[in-house]
Batch of 2 targets.
Target 1
Amino acid sequence: MTITSNEETRTDRLVKWAAELKYSDIPDDVIQRTKDFFLDTLGCAIAGRSHPAVSAMVRFAAQMGPSDGKSELIDGSQNVRTSPAFASLINAAASHVVEQDDLHMRSIMHPATVIFPAALAVSQDIGATGEEFLTACVVGYEVGCRVGEYLGKSHYEKFHTTATGGVIGVAAAVAHLLKLDAIQTSSAVGTAGTQAAGLWQFLMDATHSKQVHTAKACFDGIFAAYSARDGLLGPRDILEGPRAMGAALVPGELHPEAIDQNLGKDFAVINSSFKWHASCRHTHPSVDALLNLMSKNQVTFDDIDSILVPTYQAAINVLSLSGNGDTVHQSKFSMGFVLAIAAKKGHAMITDFTEADLTDASLRDFQSRVTMEYNAEIDSKFPEEWQGTVIVTCKSGKVFKESTRFAKGDPELPLTRSEIEAKTHALAKYGGITDTAKVDSIIKRAWNLENEVDLRGFVF
Amino acid sequence: MTITSNEETRTDRLVKWAAELKYSDIPDDVIQRTKDFFLDTLGCAIAGRSHPAVSAMVRFAAQMGPSDGKSELIDGSQNVRTSPAFASLINAAASHVVEQDDLHMRSIMHPATVIFPAALAVSQDIGATGEEFLTACVVGYEVGCRVGEYLGKSHYEKFHTTATGGVIGVAAAVAHLLKLDAIQTSSAVGTAGTQAAGLWQFLMDATHSKQVHTAKACFDGIFAAYSARDGLLGPRDILEGPRAMGAALVPGELHPEAIDQNLGKDFAVINSSFKWHASCRHTHPSVDALLNLMSKNQVTFDDIDSILVPTYQAAINVLSLSGNGDTVHQSKFSMGFVLAIAAKKGHAMITDFTEADLTDASLRDFQSRVTMEYNAEIDSKFPEEWQGTVIVTCKSGKVFKESTRFAKGDPELPLTRSEIEAKTHALAKYGGITDTAKVDSIIKRAWNLENEVDLRGFVF
């Protein structure tokens, strides 16, 4: 007899649901939104393909992986096919570079950048269909985001939940593709959980761990699921057990109900947001509020004397780690710099953050006049709501205030298909893709994904 | 400007020492002991080669890795050569199955099972010499164990320090083999640290994470070092930074002085213990005390009515997780069962734990009469000393008490070379190796390791 009881745990229920979900169980709006996020992720991957972290992983795959395989890199210029573990490692790193991938708010994680690269690479490896791929992605979103929500915001203070919830979501998605039963899926999830890692320390010196986290969530989750199929046993109660993730990785409040409530009714895909701006997601509500305020009140960049941004604690924590933003990537984590870009350019798209801007005195001066301030009321609603408020004092002495409950791209204000297509073209252009017909053909395939029988060729 | 200061941190000093260590800097007793532990690890790997976790990883490597490579599996029956990441994955899993690998007490970790597989596989990949291999292993032991000691015993309550300290040690050892400079080594160590994971939850249901932890410490540490060479930047202050390992993974007391005090003077290799008994290391001091007591007082298995074992908290924590011990592996984590085996058979060697013993009524009855009890004085000395005390009440009514400060195999009582050779032969025999001349030839090579110019062929 082991100490683990035979009573069904919340994790058991989540795992069973994940193993048994069928395509026909999934509402059509969930399928449609999953396709939206899939296309969005392909664009992100191609935009991020030249980052040094991605190059290092391409080299790692060449040294440690096979010289051929069935899984493709979204960056076709590499002309590489490899095993799914390495293909997803690289694609996941690439898709998390430009800070344009999605967000599931309640869990504070970015599911797309881990779930799609893993599910795509494995689908190519085993010859899964579009329906099988989409079902696995819905499973991956659901399991990953529920784990992230269970771990909560005290976990997020030190840990990159996209990695720690993500690896579990990947394991569940891949287990579904491999047609593992509930017992095997439980092992996959357990083995994923005991590998869960990913610290925010890299924000302090602008190093490359953010891409390591998404890359390794894919690799490690694939390891967990393939190994579970081949007999490796993982701990069953990896979320709520006495030496499990909740106990070890969460100093504050846990949310156990998130693990299994409303399974099959409330879908993480539907609760995820698109990122419209190219900056850290914690800046988006404030950018929207500022742009609304400037438009409503005909305030210009030069009119603004200072901005006070009352916000929630997690935003202050994350946005305080990158200093003034010495690099383009870091600059997207500075509230002041992002608001400066938005105020000056009228948007904060991927092409709006440049090396030249880093030394633009007017932007740096504006940045120095932006202050974040903890607001208890806004914080009490986080992460269910990511509210944005800006209080703008003009050089004229006038003061304006504007708040947003939802950001553009949120579930309440999702991007339209034509906006997603425009964003994909912009990301591809940023990534150096000049063949727009190729981009159009990939867009067309994505919209028809449930009817695809071969998922190869999503390569720019 | 980033927020990270330019002042040298403790981690900087450790990394610099690691990057710059030369073979000629290492005292001869450290070299000799490193060779002892290397041979010991080879024996452990061959003894553990048939475990299902190892088989699953062999299969994973076949599916995800290359079909050839320069790095070997210690288990020659697999007839596999692969890339160093996969070879070390498998060898590290195999060497941590039979609970006979070494222990560094102050850090509560098993350095050999992660450092040697990684350093061996990489040495084979790059053609390193015996001297280069030994130097890298000394670096790996030192860095890994210092990190484990820094994290301390509150970390160990939830985390398997062999994994979390281990991945850093592996990164440092491999960085040394790859001749990375201090800056690159800092990146390797940082990327390793943001992957640090490994939870004790698996003890609850006897699943396979213990092998996952050592295997992945190797894979992830190799990833960190090779990627650092290829331009991937890792966070610099991964131990003491505000979002780093200490802050995120340690609820209690940290030991920052362990990171950099007495570098080059106090060697982790010399402070490591051999395991003589085949059970969890937390049972060893009590086994020694019991065997001494029985021998001194001519007490037999049948004479004993009950045993009280005053001990430190970490022993109670770990040994309380496996229930009565339903499997051979779990049975090595039951204080009562291990003492029963030792009392009945006079030793607790690898061949003393069998399937048949699990249903032996006399052992199970004896087991039920053993009780652990928290002892504040013993606990206050842990983990600097792992004391063992047993209070035996005989059926005659006589009561005996015996304590040990050091276990057989401890730095104060190390195994002799002939004992290590005997242990290696026993492990090989347990692993099904019948060619004892082959074992002798490997022993001979190990004792001459510093003069080897090609580290291939350590294959049973």
Target 2
Amino acid sequence: MRISARNQIKGTILEVTKGATTSHVRVDIGGQVVTSSITNEAVDELGLKAGGQAIVVIKASDVMIAVD
Amino acid sequence: MRISARNQIKGTILEVTKGATTSHVRVDIGGQVVTSSITNEAVDELGLKAGGQAIVVIKASDVMIAVD
Amino acid sequence: MRISARNQIKGTILEVTKGATTSHVRVDIGGQVVTSSITNEAVDELGLKAGGQAIVVIKASDVMIAVD
Amino acid sequence: MRISARNQIKGTILEVTKGATTSHVRVDIGGQVVTSSITNEAVDELGLKAGGQAIVVIKASDVMIAVD
Amino acid sequence: MRISARNQIKGTILEVTKGATTSHVRVDIGGQVVTSSITNEAVDELGLKAGGQAIVVIKASDVMIAVD
Amino acid sequence: MRISARNQIKGTILEVTKGATTSHVRVDIGGQVVTSSITNEAVDELGLKAGGQAIVVIKASDVMIAVD
């Protein structure tokens, strides 16, 4: 499957923290860490766990820019 | 200003493409490139242009995870 | 690629309308029509055009519920 | 109330799963199922429960397109 | 129609700026101004124009918090 | 830090409700109340609590418009 989302960055899962319905997944994308908030179902279905390879996917319209 | 968004990644602006109301800004975050879709107003107000330093900001609930 | 987004619905593209930087893509998902707003780049890269098969992908946290 | 969101699809609620602060609501929209992640408060206020009629509402800028 | 979105704030439209596919609508919500980016179609369908009454609708998961 | 998000509204925190991984923060922005759903981590890191000053930040592409 190829998807329209402009941002697809490969990395390694550092940590999966499950809540009641929502999990937080932290992914190392080469020195920088990205945090994702997804459903517990998705974590189970994709078999996400620390040490696994993953692709961080973000739609361009969800990315903001800041300057110091 | 400090913000709740979990993802704040420093980088260098590669390109700013302006449309009628919406601009696309591409930022190099250390070998990987992130594309952002923001208003033309924001581009002007922040003075964004190629070569400038920028911080990519993404709310955790907007980040998806994929596996091959 | 398998993705965490809970909503992945197959359909047929009805129409692609390109703007200056942003395109609107309308997809028939079996009688109902879904409208998507994505970058022109994504349209070109995926070769989206009327009559083509497509999968509509939506993160669960972006779905609201209404009642009459 | 009429809203700008381009996607408003009628369906029947299949399941409501409450978490600590966030609920997941699954809606059958005619053979296809859409999952929504909303606050527990919204579930209570709208009286959402399995078997009820509901409208799935999604902003066009939150819809991605994928191809096989 | 009642919707799950936690934020529904009444105001008066100050300005509608149309782009090629995307419009920007500025709404005064009592001294503060909110900017919305929606499709041109939605602007036409709802008949949005300066001086009109409108309700700004935002899903709670799209709201960030910052501190100085 | 200055950010591209078009909507940055000052207010006072009314309530912070923590869930398993996700918190709800309610902010009074001058008579109107905005609800935000963010990670528990963000609440802790920013030291958010009732009575504190805060800025509500919303990207324009996440704002919808409704009419009665």
